[in-house]
Amino acid sequence: MALTTHIALDLLNKAHTPETASAIFTEKVLHKPLHLRPTSPDPNSQDARARRRLERLRKKEKSRKRQRPKPLSAKEKRMTGIYEIAKESLKYEIYVPLHRMWLSYIWEILAMVKGKQNWTTAQAAGAKIASADFHGAKLAVVRSKCVSLVGLEGIVVRDTKFTFQTITRKNELKTVPKKYTIFRFKIPQPDTVSETLDAKMCKDIPDEDMGPDALVFEIHGSSFEHRAIDRATKKFKQQNRPEL
Question: How many C-beta atoms lie closer than 10 Å to residue 184's C-beta?
Answer without folding.
Answer: 15
